[in-house]
Amino acid sequence: MAPSGPGSVRRRCRRVLYWIPVVFITLLLGWSYYAYAIQLCIVSMEDIGEQVVCLIAYHLLFAMFVWSYWKTIFTLPMNPSKEFHLSYAEKELLEREPRGEAHQEVLRRAAKDLPIYTRTMSGAIRYCDRCQLIKPDRCHHCSVCDKCILKMDHHCPWVNNCVGFSNYKFFLLFLAYSLLYCLFIAATDLQYFIKFWTNGLPDTQAKFHIMFLFFAAAMFSVSLSSLFGYHCWLVSKNKSTLARGSLVPILGAIGEDKAPLGKPCCEAFRSPVFRHGTDKNGFSLGFSKNMRQVFGDEEKYWLLPIFSSLGDGCSFPTCLVNQDPEQPSTPAGLNSTSKNPENHQFPAKPLRESQSHLLTDSQSWTEGSTNLGKDKAGMSNPALTMENET
Ligand SMILES: [Zn+2]
Ligand SMILES: [Zn+2]
């Protein structure tokens, strides 16, 4: 039986409230359709040629916008596969051990066959107390979804969903098509907007729709272009909103770890930490390969909200192969395309035999974390040396 009580009622109310931004966008989109297609194109345009061209182009953009928005909202975020979950015996052992080196030893043993290269700021294995699993690289716990999300970018209130490995491409296309949609409306509505102010439009209700349509399209174009530009930069560098190497939170990026809603904790916004230290470009493979990580190898899918990202979301190629001899030169996901994020394949075996050595070598761990603490800027700040992984 489902638990009931003030806690669960509050949770259910919160879940309903989270849909308000999506309902707002949907209503706005519905009104923009009425204002543009009916009031501007059909009622106000006199030239048939202009009417037809505008209506065809508008419906094309409208369809792509709705399709990518829908896919961003309703694509379930992917969670770490069962290989990352601790066994019952390991969980029991973990509960018995006090926090510290013994605790880490249990996690190191559990992680010895897993393809993970990133660590906490102190060099420890990244572990989620809440989900009781070892976090794969680029995976973060979302406090809104209350789950660990693969390659989590941020929790977006405008789509009421976590943006991560399974839907990041859809989110980018949603930004791109919504920006094109707004720019197209603003550009084709401009001459009628000018006529409104020069009393060139007949005195009907259509003229007010035309005026508000231009204001809304211009306003959203400005905010969307900055957000889209920012995400293009992230993709070109193979970074994410959460791990972009800056401590400045961005509007709309919420939910990582225990950060309160709308207030991301600064630790969530740091560069990834590898065995050899922090590297803000650790996952960057060069512009072309970075783009292909998100959009895939098949060009025909690039502009469509169809899943084509490379990899399985659990392990990622890095540019540190030369610096870390333990890393495989062709990790899982570099050349493989997974068409369906629901049926993702995780390599059951370690990527390389030597990898288990990497994770079981406690001596090198201790040294690594000590050097890390000495070498890296910002490590002297105790707020940055502890990772709150739950
Ligand atoms: Zn978690
Ligand atoms: Zn989330």
Task: Provide tags for this entry.
single chain, 390 residues, mainly alpha, 2 domains, 46% helix, binds zinc ion, membrane, protein homodimerization activity, protein-cysteine S-myristoyltransferase activity, PFA4/ZDH16/20/ERF2-like, transferase
Characterization of the model:
The protein has about 400 residues and is mainly α. The protein has two domains: about 130 residues, no CATH class; about 230 residues, no CATH class. It is about 45% helix and about 5% strand. The protein has eleven helices and nine strands. The strands form four sheets. A three-stranded antiparallel beta sheet has the order 1-8-9. β6 and β7 form a beta hairpin. α6 runs antiparallel to α7. It is elongated. The two termini are about 25 Å apart. About 40% of the residues are buried. Bound molecules: zinc ion (ZN) (2 copies). One zinc ion binds next to loops.
